[in-house]
Amino acid sequence: MAVLIGLLSACGLMRVGDIEPPDGERMIGNIRIVGNDEVSDGDIIERLQSQVQSIAVDADDALVDRSEIAIDARRIESIYAAFGYFRARVVDFWVTESGHRMSTVTFQVEEGPPTLVTTIEFDGLRFGEGDIEADVRLTEVMNRVRRLVPLREGDVWTEEDYQAGLDQLTQALVDTGFVHARVTGDNLVSRERNEVGVFYQVDHGPLVRVSYVDVTGLRHVKRSDVIDRVAIKPGDIIVPSKLRATEDHVHDLGKFYGVQARVPRDASLGTSKAGPTRRSVATPKPGADDETDAPLPAELPVIVRVQEVPRWDVSFGVGFATNAASSDNLRIDLNTPIRLTYHHLFGSLVAIRSNVTPALVLPDLTEGVEPRFGFKGDLIFEWPSFIEEFLKLSVEGSYDRDASQDTITEEFGASIGFSRRFFDILNTRIGYNISSFQFFTGSVTGLTTDQVRDQAADLSRFRFVDQDLITFIDVALAVDLRDGVYDARKGFYAALSANIASTALGGDVDYLRLQADVRGYVRAARWLTLATRARVGWNFFPKNQGTPGPARFRAGGPSSMRGFTTGRMGDYICAEAAANAAGETLAVNGPCPTDATDRTYIGGNFLLETNTEARFYLSDTIGMTAFVDVAQLWSRSTDITASSLDVAVGPGFFYLTPIGPIRVDLGFLVASDRISSELGFEFVFNLSLGQAF
To answer: At what angle do helices 66-82 and 159-176 cross, to 10 degrees?
Structure first.
């Protein structure tokens, strides 16, 4: 960008920043590098002290300073050395005027030949010192050392690859249990032969074990409850994976804002009965040896620091959500969630939590439609260590009156479930659920209820009845290898769930609902993550029965298909049926008035959804995304075709906060039957908390 602005400025086409430099001074409008083939202009210019005047660089910092330019000429030679060109030199540099009191700085370079790696050696490994486990783990690390060190014999040496080898080898040793590990190195360069020998000096120290585990920050929770969840015990080898598992296990108790499992920073300054020594960095006393030796401890404590949540936790909030994009189809839900949590029921870890969300729904601001009221509430009882340590019991009761669409629905629900984590990555659940699902408005203007039921069964396989009692068993498995839940940058996640509904369980309907969710994250660069997700859903049900509303799949919204508003994909029912071109009056998927209150979306029985996005981290707190969403809902298996898939693309922006990213997405629907003939696309604005997936 700086180069582009500089080129425009040099041509007199663009000026940004301060209007004029001080009297008698000139600003740098462009920096040119001549003669470079192997190292790009950008890699050189971004490391120079001389700067091109731009929005981010004001005039005072971009003034022509010939003494600084001369220093930059020598700095370029150092930059080339970092890329393996030790014989590169700047043969000339000059400053030319380019109008508007601006100048162009030019450096002419001769790159010379690259320096190739001829040998890579590793020194300092100590085997056979009495710890058999240490020997085994050292051998394991060295067996994969070639994958840890980016440099290879015959490669062009670069400082970046060399430093990456130091860091990755050190981290591999720490991850294996050598907490004190340090890796340094030397590079022996022959400028005449354009060769370099790379020598890594490995100081791994002893294999470190846990001396004791302590917990700090407790007020109401018993220490034993936390210790039972600690994944690392006295005598275990200290590895970061067990410390992270400890944090996850303790946090699962639901009693802490934060959990941190660490080895104290000053612990390694003490002494131990065992272990090799390392030279101390302390200043020696007069007359003493230049270097003193301090033993490295082979045992260290692990401290688990926690921050408890209060016994009572009450929160209120006000929010809104828009459910359409155009002014003639605008729906706004105003929410005021009220949350009450009690964390220490009966003096134990049992928790009871309630969440109340009344909603004021304004169906259409342009038509003056009267507002409607909705309500959602639940009461949850949780016991995170039921019978045995990692078995969690949860009992939930809920009520949901959905007034956000024309056909108002009401649902009472209750469930009891057991969940457990295995091997720190596998989460499982099994539960029993019962709910009563009811339509408040069971008729459509111009058609009888029987006609609507027949159309719903035929066209959408939807069970359109006034009330249903649904009972089902839910089973779920999830493997989570992500590096974070709210903003994953690398890793993998896969989940499979099944709902088995049966009249044998006391309900009115039979169906099998399956859903798979797979996500992958690749950190392509420090500032770039590539993320993708695929969701597939499939309902099996008796053909003459159809599926009730709660069993059907929904799509659309900020965490789904961003070309649609929340839940506005799939089949729908018209409140006021109209005649189509053939003269038929259809309430299901037929022509409806454009009024926002007219359609009630009922989802589908088959779901296919893929999301792909590139996440650009522009700073520590700000980022942007570019996404492609492809999705569709079908009610009948005979309707499933690739040509019916909807496609949305768009940009997004996010702001990273301690509770997750605040995200804004603008989804342009570019392939769909719903595309506006005037615009050639439809667009939806989405505001949400957390990444899309």
So the answer is: 50
Residues making up the chain, counted from first to last: 693
Contacts of 551 by beta carbon, 8 Å cutoff, 6+ apart: 470, 499, 501, 509, 511, 513, 539, 541
Contact (Cβ atoms closer than 8 angstroms) between residue 238 and residue 209: yes
* Maximum mean pLDDT: which of 52-66, 75-89, 253-267, 301-315: 75-89
Question: What confidence tens digit (pLDDT) does each residue in 301-358 have?
Answer: 999 999 988 888 887 776 655 544 443 444 555 667 777 888 877 777 788 889 888 8
Give which of 23, 99, 107, 26 is closest to 62, Cα–Cα.
26
CATH class of 2-110: alpha beta
Asked whether the CA dihedral 647, 651, 656, 662 is positive or negative, the reply is negative
Report how far apart, in Å, the C-alpha atoms of 525 and of each of 197, 489, 521, 530, 614 are.
28, 10, 12, 9, 11
Q: Which architecture, in CATH terms, is 209-307?
A: Roll (3.10)
Q: How confident is the model at residue 677 (pLDDT cuts 50, 70, 90)?
A: low
**How are beta strands 646-657 and 660-671 bridged, if at all?**
antiparallel
The conformational region for residue 620 under phi > 0 = left, psi -120 to 50 = alpha, else beta, is: alpha
C-alpha span between 107 and 33 (Å, rounded): 5
Q: Are 408 and 422 in contact (CB under 8 A)?
A: no
- Report d(CA 421, CA 407) in Å as an integer: 40
The owner of tokens 């994976």 is 241
Domain ranges of the chain: 2-110, 116-203, 209-307, 312-365+372-404, 405-689
Q: Is 594 helix (H, G, I), strand (E, B) or coil?
A: coil
Comparing 2-110 with 116-203, is the CATH topology the same?
yes
Architecture of domain 116-203: Roll (3.10)
Question: What architecture is domain 405-689?
Answer: Beta Barrel (2.40)
The token pair at 325 is 């994009």
d(CA 331, CA 599): 12
How far, in Å, are 78, 147, 149, 178 from residue 202 at the CA level?
A: 27, 16, 13, 11
Strands of 195-203's sheet in order across: 116-123, 195-203, 182-190
